[in-house]
Amino acid sequence: MLDYYLRSTNETTMTDALIEAGIVSIMVHPNGKTERFCVPGATVDHIGPLAWLVYEDGEIIAKSDPGWHTNLRVAEPLTDEQWSILPIIDPPPANPVRRFFDASPTVPTLGDSDDDGS
After folding, report:
1. 79-101: buried (b, 16+ CB within 10 Å) or exposed (e) per residue?
2. pTM score > 0.90 for this model?
3. Which residues contact 77 (CB under 8 A, 6 or more apart)?
């Protein structure tokens, strides 16, 4: 399994990128209801905006990142095209706010792509 950390300006932009990259598909039911789902081999964890506290100079200070954060886990490496579509944080964060449950996830960087572009 490979984990990727994504960041965009908002949830709609993130969802659009996941759909364009072929990670999320859309199904329209006969009753007209629309459902989004991950393709086999992919898991998406939407986190949203981040907020945390830090201790600086004897004071507790609130910090935030209003961007939309999403974790992506896939069974196979992303293609170069998917890398270009998805808003991947590269290099990945040293201390992610949230991770998938796994003792030893693999977090690739841009130079790790196995796709030869063909």
Report:
1. beebbebbbbeeeeeeebeeeee
2. no
3. 2, 108, 112, 113, 114, 115
Give how many domains the chain has, as a whole number.
1
Answer yes or no: is 43 within a domain. Answer: yes
Q: Let me know if residue 52 belongs to a domain.
A: yes
Residues of the domain holding 36? 2-95
Q: Of 89, 84, 85, whose CA–CA distance to 67 is shortest?
A: 89
Residue 47 to residue 29: CA distance in whole angstroms: 27
Q: Give the tens place of pLDDT for each residue, 38-94.
A: 999 999 999 999 988 889 899 999 988 889 999 999 999 999 999 999 999 988 888
Q: Which two tokens stand for residue 23?
A: 């990670």
Residue 34 lies in a domain: yes
β-pairing, 2-8 vs 34-38, is unpaired
In a domain, 108, yes or no: no
Residue 78: Cβ-neighbour burial (10 angstroms; 0-12, 13-18, 19+): buried
Locate 84 and state its tokens. Answer: 């270009």
